[in-house]
Design goal:
228 residues; alpha+beta; six-stranded antiparallel β-sheet; single chain
């Protein structure tokens, strides 16, 4: 397989990619301009998922390690009804964020027979690590994004080995707000929520992510919402 191209935090590109994967055009990614309560009123509802792009840092890595140790020490088991996969390739976190967004909302989203539907079918019954390995070997899914970017650019598309930012996804499932991070072994629970309060509840968690990096402004939030 050729080198994997890192995903842009760009709704237009992401929506073209989702379409290539077989996601109904009734749903789309949009920018969330601000996490202030008043600004959230402008985001179309219902919000099925939020993605956050943030800078990788020592603060993040230390917290990730502590979370994992705490969960393992308690014998934590991953919730069976939450679709979560582990990241294997360095540049694939954007694709994973979109897979997490759609896979946990298939009761809302119509999927055509195609790349993503095939992946989800083959991933049934697998643990997070095996789902990650399956994605790593899905040349169709990874090459589809490269094709989308190439079609939008007159320049040659090349992959970079330098990874400085990371995507994570937030979804609500069975009354719980989950953080889904391919670099973590388990979904992270962030308390109770529901369809009506999901955006506001998730925004609080996102604000805490940003507060941990006071010297960095490189954050971007997007939402999976209905086409208007």
């Amino acid at each position: 397989m050729s080198a994997v191209l890192a995903m842009e935090s760009n709704p237009e590109t992401m929506n073209k990619y989702l379409k290539r994967l077989g996601v109904s055009d009734k749903w789309r990614m949009v920018d969330v301009i601000s996490l202030d309560e008043e600004a959230l009123d402008w985001v179309p509802r219902p919000v099925l998922a939020l993605t956050l792009l943030f800078p990788l840092s020592t603060t993040y890595e230390d917290l990730r390690s502590k979370e994992e140790q705490d969960l393992l020490s308690k014998g934590h088991q991953a919730p069976k009804d939450v679709f979560h996969l582990r990241q294997v390739l360095s540049n694939v976190c954007g694709t994973i964020a979109l897979v997490h967004s759609v896979a946990n909302n298939t009761h809302h989203i119509e999927l055509e027979e195609g790349i993503l539907a095939t992946y989800l079918k083959n991933a049934k019954g697998l643990d997070a690590a095996a789902k990650g390995a399956l994605l790593e070997n899905s040349a169709a899914m990874l090459e589809a994004y490269k094709d989308v970017v190439a079609a939008s650019s007159n320049e040659e598309v090349t992959a970079s080995d330098t990874v400085s930012h990371h995507f994570v996804t937030f979804v609500h499932k069975d009354g719980t707000l989950y953080e889904l991070d391919g670099r973590k072994s388990f979904p992270i629970e962030h308390g109770s929520t529901n369809e009506d309060r999901f955006l506001e509840d998730a925004a609080k968690v996102l604000r805490s992510f940003i507060a941990r990096e006071p010297d960095n402004i490189c954050f971007n939030v997007m939402a999976l919402v209905p086409e208007q």
